[in-house]
Amino acid sequence: MAARGRYDHLVAAAKTARARAYSPYSGVKIGAAVLASDGSVYTGCNIENASYGLSCCAERTAIFKAVSEGARNITAIAVVGKSDEFTTPCGACRQVMVEFNPRMKVLRRGTDGFSEDTTAESLLPGHFKPDELSKT
Q1: Could you say which of 44, 81, 112, 113 would form a disulfide bridge with 62 (CB–CB 3.0 to 4.6 Å)?
Q2: Tens digits of per-residue pLDDT, 24-68?
Q3: Does 99 qualify as catalytic in the annotation?
């Protein structure tokens, strides 16, 4: 099966999650879905707060849901927004992605037709690595 077709269900789950976004301040709706190594799918949407620093991106929401349910190896994430601009994970999300799998496939899709496939480590070269934290 082609890589793109292989992840169609993941992109569809991210589109569904996007519809649940809570974004009363920016109006920007983002959905994400992650695929765990056991085949489980976990979804998330962006959740804004009047205190902007307390908001959470769709990517981290989905990953944190997966981890809280026991998933530790995430093989892919689909991020769906309006366009290229609204599917680019922020730095915090990129670091969280590489924490759970630097080679994680990242599928970015825009409702305007934008499409890009990459990996977490290519989005964040030079990322923090767990083994580096224990060095003295």
Answers
A1: 44
A2: 999 999 999 999 999 999 999 999 999 999 999 999 999 999 999
A3: no
Between helix 58-68 and helix 91-100 the angle, nearest 10°, is 30
Instruction: Write a three-state SS string for the chain.
Output: CCHHHHCHHHHHHHHHHHCCCECCCCCCCCEEEEEECCCCEEEEECECCCCHHHCECHHHHHHHHHHHCCCCCEEEEEEEECCCHHHCCCHHHHHHHHHHCCCCEEEEEECCCCEEEEEHHHHCCCCCCHHHHCCC
Run of H or E including 36? strand 31-36
Q: Which of 24-38, 39-53, 95-109, 121-135 has the lowest mean pLDDT?
A: 121-135
Longest dimension (CA), the chain: 48
Catalytic residue among 48, 59, 116, 132: 59
